[in-house]
Write a structure and sequence with these properties.
- This protein is an alpha+beta fold and about 450 residues long.
- It has a single domain, classed as Up-down Bundle (Outer membrane efflux proteins (OEP)).
- Strands 2-5-7-8 form a 4-stranded antiparallel sheet, with no helix packed on it. It has a two-stranded parallel sheet with strand order 1-6.
- α3 runs antiparallel to α4, α4 packs antiparallel against α5 and α6 crosses α8.
């Protein structure tokens, strides 16, 4: 019996082991299937996001026009102008005549009489109209003027916002162009590395090459593949940033070369920048508005004269109040002492004017510095661009020579790989130089007040 016991229990253990194995496999499938579904769905989402047909395409001029029409900040600036105009109406109201009507119905316990004459009836109705005309109200008039100054400030501020937005769009568009150029360089480098690996692989299969050359070529191919993917990722980020500025619900692609206007000479740029730039114009308007408010502080010391006309109706009439009549008044208000409020307000206005003038002076110096530095940067970047293009051409020629020598068996593929890297680096440097040159040209146009172009 003892000898047979293990044999009897062995099938049970085998069945239990098979059952555990099947249960474990089923559990693994249950864990793996959701992951596969998630990966497939994620791949479909990414494929939808990167679908080239879903990317909007704009030229440089179209991108600027759409941003200046559709960006939310432009609509916000319009609302600020409307708000300033509404405040003008509010400030104007105290300086204009007002007409107020009033009616009062009363009921008391019984009539009030003196002898046989009624002084006040048990039930009465009184009504009047009050017409108030400010005859001399300098404070109210000047508040009206100051509110109109705020409307002009809002309009100039909207113009400066358009300038800032146009510059942001232009820089984002140039960033997309630069990233497109980087993708082209990376793709060209990857194609070269692929061709090199294919040649090394075929040589080894034909018994001429060796495994070392093949591994080196394959390593270079994978390195350039990684650079290509990183370049495409950077391009998508730049396109998404441009799409946000253009109020698009997706990435935006640049479809044409950017043609910026010719930059002005240094002397003309330094002379015209203070008068052409909207940010300087905004600071000048603030100085003018603050100076006007400070100069008009004298109105706080002046009296106010208001005329009032009050026609009335009284039913029933009393001893002192007929049924109908009118009353006219001249009300003179003279501020003798207010605890120092007017003098404190005058000092505050003077301080605000001084701060606005200092900001304008600092901005003027900053504008001159921006023009000079942008002009120098443009000259340097143009020279660097020429040198980078020559270096890229020489690197391409060196790569062709190294490839020819390797195919002829005169050298190893180390020289080819080194030449490939140098050619790719030189083309990348040329792309960077192109972007820097465009950015420098844009900076000079913006510093001199020639960008964005003025609309008719």
């Amino acid at each position: 019996m003892r000898a047979n016991a293990p044999n009897a229990t062995a099938p049970r253990h085998g069945l239990q082991a098979d059952r555990r194995a099947r249960t474990g496999a089923a559990a693994r499938r249950r864990r793996v299937l959701p992951l596969l579904v998630l990966l497939l769905a994620s791949g479909a989402v990414h494929a939808g996001q990167l679908n080239p047909a879903a990317i909007k395409r704009y030229t440089f001029e179209q991108a600027l026009d759409r941003a200046l029409r559709r960006n939310p900040s432009i609509e916000t600036a319009r609302q600020e102008i409307l708000r300033a105009e509404a405040l003008v109406r509010q400030a104007r109201a105290p300086a204009l005549p007002t007409l107020v009507g009033q009616a009062v119905g009363s009921r008391i316990d019984h009539e009030r009489k003196i002898g046989d004459r009624t002084v006040q009836g048990a039930q009465s109705l009184a009504a009047n109209l009050t017409l108030a005309v400010p005859l001399f109200a300098p404070q109210r008039w000047l508040q009206w003027v100051h509110a109109r100054d705020n409307v002009e400030l809002s309009q100039v501020s909207a113009s400066d916002l358009r300038r800032s937005l146009a510059l942001s769009v232009a820089r984002a568009y140039l960033a997309v162009v630069a990233q497109q150029r980087n993708v082209e360089v990376a793709d060209r480098g990857f194609a070269t590395a692929q061709a090199h690996y294919a040649f090394a692989h075929e040589r080894r299969r034909g018994g001429v090459g060796n495994r070392l050359d093949e591994v080196r070529a394959e390593q270079e191919q994978e390195a350039t593949r990684a650079q290509t993917q990183l370049a495409r990722s950077a391009l998508l980020r730049a396109q998404e940033a441009l799409g946000v500025l253009l109020a698009e619900d997706g990435p935006v692609e640049a479809v044409a070369a950017v043609r910026l206007p010719a930059p002005p000479p240094l002397g003309a740029a330094l002379h015209e920048a203070p008068t052409r730039r909207s940010d300087v114009a905004l600071l000048e308007r603030r100085v003018a508005a603050a100076a006007r408010v400070r100069r008009d502080s004298y109105a706080d010391l002046l009296p106010t004269l208001t005329g009032q006309l009050v026609p009335f109706y009284q039913q029933p009439a009393t001893i002192t109040q007929p049924t109908t009549g009118w009353q006219a008044q001249l009300i003179l208000s003279v501020p003798f002492f207010d605890g120092g409020l007017r003098y404190g307000a005058r000092r505050e206005r003077a301080a605000l004017e001084g701060g606005a003038r200092l900001a304008l002076q600092a901005a003027s110096r900053q504008v001159q510095a921006e023009v000079r530095s942008a002009f120098e940067a443009l000259q340097r970047t143009d020279q660097a661009l020429g040198a980078a293009h020559r270096a890229a051409a020489l690197a391409g020629e060196a790569l062709a020579l190294a490839t020819t020598a390797y195919q002829a068996g005169a050298t190893t593929n180390l020289e080819v790989i080194d030449a490939e890297r140098r050619a790719r680096d030189a083309e990348t440097a040329a792309a960077v130089a192109e972007d820097l040159a465009r950015q420098a040209r844009l900076d000079l146009l913006a510093a001199s007040g020639r960008f964005p172009p003025r609309r008719p």
